[in-house]
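Sample pair:
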Amino acid sequence: MSSPAFALHRPPPDAPWDGDQGPPEGTPVSEADYWAHYYEHDNGYEWNNGLLEVKPVSDALTAWIYQWLLGLLRLYLDTQHNARLTCLEFGCRLSLSNKVVIRKPDLGLVLDSNAQPLREHDRSYRGIFDLCVEALSDSTPAEIRRDTEQKREEYQAAGIPEYYIIHHNPRWQLFYRRNALGLYEPIPCPDGILRSTVVPGFRFRLEDLTRQPSLETMIEDPVYAPFVLPSWQRDRQARAQAEQRASSAEQRASSAEQLLERERANNARLLAELAKLRDQD
């Protein structure tokens, strides 16, 4: 027999959806039933104070920007080892002053210094992310407002220090950090480079979200070189230095051989002159 909470979201006989399709956005669902039945649903539901919300899908251009930024963060963490990432369907519960929401940021970062660590077997995060990234969907004005207004207000109120909104159109590339008053303000990028104040040393050029430079380019770029494959750069430098030393040694050996050859020739000439003098005597 179903519990009263479960009956809340049971579809009526003429409902336009079945168990596989899932209920439409705005369906009232208790928080307990959300975690039990909809948190891992294929529709990627989020939960907004008792109502289901469907996570919209971004276009391919925006998805590629997301993938590049995710790859850059992974390269950073391969070097720094100071945080952990969550992606896509990994949720967190935000208890705000006026409501409770469960959000699934497209990318969440938890620093090792966070009071609530992200553990290996967690299926949701129980703390407050240090950084959230949302890949904007622009299919409808409501979807744009959800990331640019609604989630911005929620993440601000929850105390998430930095919030990035990415999109293939620079108009919708928005980057916020909390100020001393706890309010989001745009992160200043006077030279076109975003420098995180939360993730130590992490930075990127705004235009590179579109350009998406290769590893070969980034390891030569002073913006990325400090955290993009530094061990590979050190190995390459060590190989270059070893080759230079070998070349210098080879040059010294060649010079020494040439000097020895000249001495041999000079000695032979002297011996020939001495022999000639003896013959004259």
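The chain is about 40% helix and 20% strand.
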